[in-house]
Amino acid sequence: MSDYIKMWRKEHAQILEVLLQVLQLDIFSRVGQTKLQELKRSLEAHLKSEDLGFFPVLKKAAETDTDLRRELFLFAADMDKIAAETRAFFRKVENDSMGKDIPAEFRRISAMIKSRIFREENLLMKEYEKVTSRK
After folding, report:
1. Phi-psi bin for 96: left (phi > 0), alpha (psi -120 to 50), beta?
2. Closest CA to 15 of 88, 131, 116, 125
3. How far apart are CA 34 and CA 16, in angstroms?
4. How far is Cα 103 from Cα 122, in angstroms, rounded to an integer?
5. Taking 90 as the threshold, does the pLDDT of residue 120 lie above it?
6. What's the pLDDT at 102?
7. Nearest CA to 86 among 12, 126, 7, 78?
8. What is the pTM of this model?
9. Distance from C-alpha of 47 to C-alpha of 116, rounded to nearest angstrom
């Protein structure tokens, strides 16, 4: 397993841990709010890392692999939706951190993020390892 994949898995594990912590805490508490901000920073850093180190490798391989190209297209559309909804959630928290729908919204985006991480690790990570092992 490459160092990048190890780092990527570690970032995923950290994101999942913070998601769990927020779900277990009172989201309206000081600690809950602090964890939400930690989650926001972790997600932003992880997405930047993916954009710089992960997806360029897969996109290059997809130039000659139509199945991978199709898979990346679907993942990109899914990520656009998740990113938009996650940004909207964090804007909502910034504007009304005590909004009554915040807990339900957080559970919803948490499920989306967890599902995305699971799919990335079980599909895209394998593709990445195949592509990088050919080099």
Report:
1. beta
2. 116
3. 16
4. 28
5. yes
6. 94
7. 78
8. 0.90
9. 12
Residues 6+ apart with CB under 8 A from 39: 15, 18, 19, 22
String of DSSP letters for 103-123: HHHHHHHHHHHHHHHHHIIII
- Whether residue 135 has pLDDT greater than 70: no
Q: Beta-carbon neighbour count of residue 7 at 10 Å?
A: 13
Q: What is the dihedral of CA 124, 135, 60, 1, to 10 degrees?
A: 20
> What DSSP string runs through 9-67?
HHHHHHHHHHHHHHHHS-TTSHHHHHHHHHHHHHHHHHHHHIIIIIHHHHHHHHTS-HH
Tokens describing residue 66: 């139509």
Q: How many CB atoms lie within 10 A of CB 73?
A: 11
Closest to 106 measured CA to CA, from 8, 7, 35, 1: 35
